[in-house]
Amino acid sequence: MSTKGIRSNLYLVATFLLLAFPSLTRAQQQGPGPAAAPNFFDFLLRPKFITMLVIGAVALALLLTNRMNSRLKVLILLVSTFLYGLSANLGLKIFAGFSMHPSPICAATKSILYGFRMPMIVTLAVIIFLTLVGPKLFCSYVCPVGAIQELIAMLADKLQIRRRKPSFRLSQTFRVLIFIAFIFLSWTAIIHTVANNRIVALSLYDYINAFHGYEINLQPTLLDNLFHFLPFILTLVFAFFTYRPFCYFVCPIGLITNVIEQIGLFRVVKRKEACTDCQTCLAKAPCPAVAEILKEAVLVADCFACTVCTGNCPGSQLKFGVKRQKPDNPTA
Ligand code: SF4
Ligand code: SF4
What we know:
15 helices, 58% helix, binds iron/sulfur cluster
């Protein structure tokens, strides 16, 4: 079997174990007795997660076959924005299960604070699975906060608004510092509240979570409304001037998936021998990832599979595919 084949199988096995493990451990803990709480697969098979996996699969198929064009991209991004962002506000039974509860941010951070619960485990498993398959499929085409920022980026291009391209070092420093502050504040809050016989940990992300903005209901006080809607509004405004500001600068899921995407199966790859180094892709790309992809760096910045670099290469030397393995013995 080729290295590529072995690698693909390892991914499948790892994915299966990842998906099955929580369910298996839970099943062992439950045993006979009163009606069991919904397990991992009960949650996974709900329409919200099934549609997420389907959207990820459709996007991947379109990317790999080079058929992802602007129209299809807008369509998929609008579907994700509607389904996982807006639909739950309509009050219709059919969309009752689609709300982003828990939001990806809550799934990651509240699990750290209060322990892993099944909806959070399933949310994280779907995000990790779609990122492992790649290219960062959850963030690229499923996440409603990511989708609306991508749509705004496309609109900004149409309106010929000049966007800034901050360095990845800057955005990553911000993202990491916010995460460290979250851990520090949570930790000190736990210490404090345990001393008072209560556990009320403080989550910094509760005050900067753009996902809350999709929950369209007025909060009791002006300050509550500010914390509820402002991160989302700022995200929408800044998205006109820089590419996916919330993803690169704030989101802890962006941070986690950036680590995971380094071993993702599918990604933007360069056909080295045919690249003329004209750097057209670099000039057009909205992200800081292309420069590292061209250098075939081991670690790359977040790629949101926007297709700008692959679509603008004059010789089609960038494409979505499996990263080529370096030969074990090049002289053999
Ligand atoms: S980085 Fe966060 S906000 Fe951006 S697409 Fe991913 S989960 Fe959504
Ligand atoms: S321009 Fe290329 S590397 Fe950058 S986000 Fe889009 S597809 Fe990924």
